Each structure stands twice: as structure tokens, then as C-alpha cells.
Amino acid sequence: MYSFVILDDQKETLNKLEKIILTEVPDAIIHQFQNVQEMCDAFPIISETAIFIIDVILKNENGIDAAKKINASFPFAQIIFISAYLDTATEVYEVDHCYYIYKPQIQAKLPAAIDKAINTIKKARKKISIQLKDRTVMLFLNEIIYMERNRRTTYIHTIENTIETSLKISQLMSELPNNFVQCHTSYIVNLDYLLEFQRTQITLRNSKLIPVSRSHLSDVRDALQDFLVK
Fold this sequence. Notes:
Elements: E1 3-7, H1 11-24, E2 29-33, H2 36-41, E3 51-55, E4 57-58, E5 61-62, H3 63-73, E6 78-83, E7 99-102, H4 106-124, E8 127-131, E9 136-140, E10 144-150, E11 153-158, E12 162-165, H5 169-173, E13 180-184, E14 187-190, E15 194-197, E16 201-204, E17 209-211, H6 217-229
Parallel strand pairs: 1-2, 1-3, 3-6, 6-7
Antiparallel strand pairs: 4-5, 8-9, 10-11, 10-14, 11-12, 13-14, 15-16, 16-17
Helix pairs in contact: 1-4
């Protein structure tokens, strides 16, 4: 069951969006809000994997500022922006979101946006089992930034810490989805964290530079192309 949060200052738009959502996800839980404060006050009862549909321009308020609060409080949530003004399309890149819809196209575009948001949430909640010396840990795949092999140890760098395991790069790679790519004998990167790709290296969003070997260059290009298409 999926939870949706709609933020728009027009009641007519709220009802229209709810109708489309229920057509796509009949058992959806839907919360409607007409201002940012109402929405923020309801955070304790909103699912951590909610799908937020937010108007960029609100009466005396800014939907992008609201999205920043959502990003901070709901790391697994997805945000779909809507707007009656196309010139807001570039502004939304200040925050993490999965879709932008021009309001006159809501009926046609919202189903695809919902589908993308649900698939992203499913992927984000997937885990991998990592065997350590004395225990097994479960890691969320979307929290893994990259993996690095040094001698007999593989270091798994996540957004919070670094895990050390004896598992080889090849063993780990066989358990990972397509958004992970081996770019070097000693490295695997999560393409969700890629900032820039050059022929000999990858720059991650945390500014870390990862080498790309000649033997893996083609694999990286293919994986990146598939990743961007999806």
C-alpha cells in the first residue's frame, strides 16, 4: 500500500489529483494539504516512503522550500513537482525529485510519474546481505556509494559509514542491480551518485574520484546509457 501527499492551494486541483491517483493505485492512502505548515504538522503520520505531489508556486509560499523539508525528513520519499508555469522547470533541480509535470498535462503525465516514483521506492528499499568476520549486516542498496578492493579487504562506502568485508568485488557485483557498475578491477560504483564521467575516471557527488580502467570502459558506457534511459 502506498501513501500520497498532495500539496496545492487549489481544492479543485487536489481533488483532480486524488482521482487520478486512485485510478492508478486504488488502495492508496492520500493526504491533502493546501499550505506548507499543515503538511509539516502532519509529518509524524506520513509514511517514510510517501510520494509527494507538490505545486511549485503556492499562495504566498514556495513548493521548492517545502520539498527541502521533505528531503530532510523523508530520505526514501519521492517528490513529483507540478506547475502551471514552465519557467519553474529549472528551479526544481535545487532539490531531489523524480518528475516535473506541466499542469495542463497532468492527466496524461501523472500515471507515468507515479509509476516511476513507485519503482524508485521499491529499488531504494532493496537490501544486500554482507558477511563480516563475526556477523552479517543488511545494507540498503541506495545508501551504498561505491566499493573498493584493497588487498584482501573490500571497503563498502555508504552515506553513513564504511563496512569492511572479505567478499571479493566479483562476488558483490553478482548480487547488485543494474545501477551498479564495475569500472575497475578494484572498484564498483553506484550510478545514482555519479556526478561526472570521463574516459579515465568517474567523479562522484561527494567529490571522490574513481578510476576507470581501459578493460571496463565499455561496460561503464553501456551501463550509463541504460541507466540514463531508465
